[in-house]
Amino acid sequence: MNSISENQFYSLLSLKLSGDASKEELELLQQKLQVNPHWQFLYDQMMQAGSVYPAENIEQSYAAHIVKMQLQGKLEHKNFEEQENNSTKSLKRIFYVVAVAASIIGFSFFVYFKMNAKEQIKNALNEVATKRGSKSFIKLPDGTQVWLNADSKLTFKENFGDKTREVSLNGEAFFDVFHDAEHPFIIHTGKADVKVLGTTFNIRNYTSEKTMEATLVKGKIEVTLTDRPDEKIIIHPQEKIIISKENNSQPNTKINAKNAVSTVDKVILTTATFKDSLMAETSWMKDKMVFVNQSLEKIADELERKFAVTIVFKTNAVNQYRYTGVFDKETVSEIFHIIQLSRKINYSINYKTITIE
Amino acid sequence: MHLQVKDILFLQNRVAYVRDELAYKKLFFHFYTPLHRFSIGIVKDYEAAEEIVSDTMMKIWDLGNKLASIDKLDAYLFTSIKNACLTFLSKKKLQLTDIAAIDINLIPEYENPESQMQLSEIEKKLNSCVNELSPQCVMVFKLIKEEGFSYKKVSGILEISQNTIETHMRIALKKIRFALSLYLSEK
Lengths: 357, 187
Fold this sequence. Notes:
Mean pLDDT of chain B: 83
Radius of gyration of chain B: 18 Å
Shape of chain B: elongated
Largest sheet of chain B: none
Number of strands of chain B: 0
Number of domains of chain A: 4
Number of domains of chain B: 2
Strand content of chain B: under 5%
Number of strands of chain A: 20
Helix content of chain B: over 70%
Oligomer: heterodimer
Radius of gyration of chain A: 42 Å
């Protein structure tokens, strides 16, 4: 094979590829292909279509291209795929204008109130409240942890912790107070103030109940009655103080903390109630209900709170029935069924209302 | 989606006068593959080629009304790409002499610029062979082999004579023929 012939082949192939080849040139090319298999092989390779680009590659490149154009301000920021008609375009424009205006107004209101709020912030009250059937856990700014039982409310001022750490409690809560001797922790319950340094205890102060109770788990607490600020009652671990909220006109003698039960009926100092090594007073934290020789009336109160149900007594005959037991994960209907096994009561359940006859 | 000459003219006018973004997208999709393929052949860098095509396509948009007066958009685009690629190469050369130390790191980039495309074994061989050709030679070969452009058109785009085109083509085909002979000759 001489090189002149070879060069001629390349020229013919090139003309074929460019589409410039005449009829004669194409015939000559075909003849040459017959002669040399190498040329045929090259010809076949050259006649194949160029490499195919996957469609998604082009999509990606196009997307990148559009972003570049948008960044340079050449296109509006919108998706090319959705060519919207003019009416939705103008609607969209109106929507944008309204949205921007609204956010400006909203922001200025926010700034205005924020400024105002700063002045009042010192006296502002923080309030954490739970509904019936729910519980809550709060961590106060000083690190104190509070578990709030159902239907309870804990409030504290914004300046909490400046000098003292003062909170008010309505309902039941378990406190794990962070130890800080310089900032006494005081709980106001209306009838009495409980002052603590660092300890864990339970306070029960439901408005609907006639008593306020404080049960100490560990540490030491100091209870002062609101109307007798000079007297301090020291409570030791596993002791419980019960303070009657009913005003007793009869003058009270000094409370003797040594006695398990005080001679005065207004304040009772006793020990915490245990059942199956569970402290009844704090059992609610573990979602348990511990009743020790408890009246059905009180049990009903407890159930109403925990399950957000209403219990109606149609007769007073049974509400003083006493019951002892521990309930763990039982439902209200299961609890009533269990109570019914030992005490003869007739009850009916209608959605969230339980009627005892 | 293959567009006829009249379709391309229609889309050109849509972009030129109505700023029709959908028409622009169609043009982009139509020209992207050949332009990128051509660009890769010269700059031998997938991403750089992508960048060059993107910039060139952006110019089309920026032309505005003038876009309508372009007679042969494909020739115009290939010419733009060629110029952009040669500018890129001259800059790259300057860079290479400046930071000769990192030369080694740049080599793998050159070896397989089309690695991101799915190619057969023979196609790979063919491509690597094409990549070894001079830029002028690659441009001629790509425009004729890949795009099937006439000598006249290639002459217009590359601003070289038709004789030069034929010479480049002979060189390219000869080299490829030798490279491919591996697959045919008995050892």
